[in-house]
Amino acid sequence: MKILLLGDSLFARYEGLEEPHINFSLKKILSGVKIQNLAQSGDNSFDLLEKLQKKQISGANLVFVWIGANDLATHKQVFLGEFQDNLRNIAKLLLKQYNSSQIIFLGPAPVDESKQVTRTNRLVNYYSEIIEKVAKEFSFDFISMQEVFRQSSYPVEQILKGLQDDGLHFGSLGYEVLAKALTKKIKTKF
């Protein structure tokens, strides 16, 4: 099985490992999984849209799209209407290579507001609602990372603690929680 990961630093971060931490965490759970991780730190929905316009990305069984953490950041915010338009255009481009049952959108994860100065959970809610709306519009699956983190047996603040410890970028515990959520979705598909 091959999965494609598209998004920002939350998919791209190594957190001290030799590969993106999410790749490592998924391989621990799913033996034999092949992962193409094209996530790029700092990317927002405009960046992902541009990437998909320039490069055809095919051959995966499932595509996970996790974008929004940079779109909602107040110092470089992409307004909700533009964000929604970008997501729709991203969806249309992906549908040229994949069918709707192969595409999964993720909503932004919660942030620790005591450490995060440019993102709030209120904004996370707004942007997550837009992602869920577009996912439903295109018959894509949607994973609410807010729910995933909140339903974990660990406190959200503990999940959000990583090397950077900025209330946004998480470490091994967060990647374990994320990998379990992705694996659960993968197992419903196969």
UniProtKB/TrEMBL annotation:
SGNH hydrolase-type esterase domain ranges (all copies): 5-177
One protein family per Pfam: Lipase_GDSL_2
InterPro entries: Iah1-like, SGNH_hydro, SGNH_hydro_sf
PANTHER family reported in the protein's UniProt record: ISOAMYL ACETATE-HYDROLYZING ESTERASE 1 (PTHR14209), ISOAMYL ACETATE-HYDROLYZING ESTERASE 1 HOMOLOG (PTHR14209:SF19)
Protein name, entry field: Esterase
Protein's organism: Streptococcus varani
